[in-house]
Amino acid sequence: MAQISIDLSGIVTREFEALPAGRYPVEVLDVTRETSKNGNPMLNWQFSVVGGEFDGRRLFTNTMLMDSSLWKLRMFLLALGYDEADLEGLIELELEELIGLTALARVAQRVYEGELRNEIRALSPLEELRVA
Q1: Which of 14, 42, 60, 88 has the fewest CB atoms within 10 Å distance of its CB?
Q2: Is the pLDDT higher at 5 or at 132?
Q3: 3 in a domain, yes or no?
Q4: Cα gap 127→132, rounded to integer Å
Q5: Among candidates 121, 92, 97, which has minimal Cα distance to 24?
Q6: The predicted structure's pLDDT at residue 14
Q7: Residue 39's domain is classified under what CATH number?
Q8: What percentage of the chain has pLDDT greater than the value 90?
Q9: Contact present, 24 and 52 (Cβ < 8 Å)
Q10: What is the rounded average pLDDT of the residues 17-26?
Q11: Do the domain assignments include residue 111?
Q12: Beta partners for 10?
């Protein structure tokens, strides 16, 4: 078993409240292929808010990889800069190439297991923030 030595004296425990509902520029920090509790394939996404009052705050979401849910993955890829033509037919998606891409996240709040949490409802191209 691994052991570490660390001094936690004076360290204050922090809790994060959910971000207010709104639109936030985000950057992809990580994308991994996972299996849901129901045994379905999915991508687990981790984003970071870029700039503003909530710079650096993390947001998490999943996109299911079932036919009935692929619309959300397509929306994400288009928002991250893929062209429609890139998404025709069978595509090979390199998850590592998604890291660092940016988009505009529409974030909502919801209660999950008694706690207020954030939920990414949609991604759109970051240019929409500049137009608004």
Answers
A1: 14
A2: 5
A3: no
A4: 9
A5: 121
A6: 67
A7: 2.40.50
A8: 78
A9: yes
A10: 94
A11: yes
A12: none
Task: State how many domains the chain has.
Answer: 1
Helix H, strand E, coil C: the string for the chain is CCCCCCCCCCCCCCCCCCCCCEEEEEEEEEEEEEECCCCCEEEEEEEEECCCCCCCCEEEEEEECCHHHHHHHHHHHHHCCCCHHHHCCCCCCCHHHHCCCEEEEEEEEEEECCEEEEEEEEEECCHHHHHC
Token pair belonging to 44: 């687990």
What's the CA gap between 114 and 70, in Å, rounded? 29
Other beta carbons within 10 angstroms of residue 19's beta carbon come to 19
Residue 99's pLDDT band (cuts 50, 70, 90): very high
Question: Which tokens go with 122?
Answer: 């949609």
Instruction: Identify the residue whose tokens are 């078993």.
Output: 1
72's tokens: 């959300």
Residue type, 66: M
